């Protein structure tokens, strides 16, 4: 099978899935080596970026996903009648704590934020950005929270290691 034919099949699989597909899964479906799939996807992504096409391929959450180019989001939102749904500041603060401190308990989140976090945690769970990852070996065995693949997709991250290192930032009131 030619590279062009394989690219067409890869594009169809990415379109049909909607979610990120790992290269090894694509390779298994197409019965070709994973490194060939990765090379073909790189060619496809380059061709899509260089053209006036509306789609691109991004590597996110451990796989590849067919996505609308960012500059066309307003056009797509008009079709779908989508209204941007933003997280509150409290939810964003809570999400940041979970992302950088995971696994973390609700009490640890509340201690860092200085306020209750029940509503923010519930919102993040509803949106699929955080999930229960276990229980802490402590009195009462509190629930531990961590981020999800949806979090990675939402923020365009391949894996958690792409989060910035907090030691690189200066914070107001922080002593040197």
TrEMBL record:
One of its GO terms (biological process) is chromosome separation. Keywords: Cell cycle, Cell division, Chromosome partition, Cytoplasm. The keyword Zinc does not apply. It holds the Pfam family SMC_ScpB. InterPro entries: ScpB_csome_segregation, WH-like_DNA-bd_sf, WH_DNA-bd_sf. The keyword Cell division applies. NCBIfam families: SMC-Scp complex subunit ScpB (TIGR00281). This is Segregation and condensation protein B. It comes from Dendrosporobacter quercicolus.
